[in-house]
Design goal:
This protein has helices spanning about 50-55, 75-85, 100-110, 115-125, 145-155, 175-190, 200-205, 225-230, 245-255, 280-290, 305-310, and strands at about 10-20, 20-35, 35-40, 65-70, 70, 85, 160-165, 190-195, 210-215, 215-220, 235-240, 260-265, 265-270, 295-300. The chain is α/β, with parallel strands linked by helices. Helix 3 packs across helix 4 (about 115-125).
Length: about 325
């Protein structure tokens, strides 16, 4: 059966997962575009892993509907599985087997022909830079190498969508960078990537759009830039001024629309809900007309972590 053509790789409407009286995911509705590198952020217990488990057919939803790669999640689960690849957080392959043997085994599960498995395995091991280790038992590999092999295993059957569940957790900085670059390269080749992570900097760097979940609900959705701007989590303008009278501070506050202000000697700090266009030019022109020297200016914009904490608060999660 052919999938219905759609610009979306994933379409969820009211997707819900309950475990007894506990609702892990509550009426989730969202769309992921084909070819998008889409991020899921959320603290422990937010519902993102449960969402991924539903979308990869590991869990049957309690309610709602979803299409993955154009196929219905409930009625066409086998067709969904044929179109997706999964890279788990923990290495789930056979450590006693070599990379070629592991990929051979996965290819057999997908019913791939012998020649196709060999060709595809060699191609993927070159992509993940493990070709020279193709005949060495995987158990001897570093964490980064194991994750790259997991990526190859997830891609063996040429899926349209690749789910990556916190793939860089526990890796050293060099391995994290290498895996991020690999993920972006795969996405540029046309693969839709669904990426879950706790790393705000990572999500900020690679995800084209981000969904923030908490307590089973979708709390925010957009590009990193949109989340920082539209949520109004605040910006800070720090200035070092020459001699000025006290009344100048009230004028600065009114000019910038600052919600708060502090002064420490020559240093002035203005706190704004959002940065107005052309604010630097406006301030420079204003101070010039007042004959006040501007000896230093620094603009501190909100980070994705600021947005995340503001939405999910600082409570520790189990």
């Amino acid at each position: 059966m052919a999938a219905t053509q759609s610009p979306y790789a994933i379409e969820c409407v009211g997707l819900t997962m309950k475990f007894g009286s506990f609702t892990a995911v509550d009426k989730l509705s969202l769309k992921v575009k084909r070819g998008e590198l889409f991020g899921f952020l959320g603290p422990n217990g937010a519902g993102k892993t449960t969402t991924i488990n539903m979308l990869t057919t590991l869990l049957i939803p309690s309610g709602g509907t979803a299409k993955v790669a154009g196929f219905d999640l409930k009625d066409e689960a086998a067709l969904v599985r044929a179109k997706i690849g999964v890279v788990p957080q923990k290495f789930a392959l056979f450590e006693e087997l070599t990379p070629m043997q592991n990929l051979w085994y996965i290819g057999e599960l997908y019913g791939m022909r012998k020649e196709e498995v060999i060709r595809r395995s060699e191609e993927l091991l070159k992509i993940v830079t493990l070709y020279d280790k193709r005949d060495i038992p995987s158990g001897t590999f570093s964490g980064g190498m194991k994750q790259r092999l997991s990526v190859a295993a997830g891609l063996i059957h040429s899926p349209e969508i690749l789910f990556m569940d916190e793939p860089t957790t526990g890796l050293d900085p060099q391995s994290r960078i290498a895996l991020r670059e690999l993920t972006q390269s795969l996405n540029r080749s046309g693969i839709t990537v669904i990426y879950t992570t706790h790393d705000m900097d990572e999500a900020d760097k690679i995800c084209q759009r981000i969904a923030i979940m908490d307590h089973g609900n979708l709390k925010a959705l957009g590009t990193s830039k949109e989340l920082k701007e539209t949520q109004e989590y605040g910006c800070i303008i720090k200035m070092e001024l020459g001699r000025h009278d006290a009344g100048l501070l009230d004028e600065l506050k009114k000019l910038t629309g600052a919600t708060g202000m502090s002064e420490n000697g020559k240093e002035i700090e203005l706190r704004l809900r959002r940065m107005k266009p052309g604010i630097v030019h406006t301030l420079s022109d204003f101070l010039s007309r007042r004959h006040v020297a501007l000896d230093g200016l620094q603009i501190i914009e909100p980070t994705l972590e600021d947005v995340f904490i503001n939405i999910t608060k600082k409570d520790l999660r189990d």
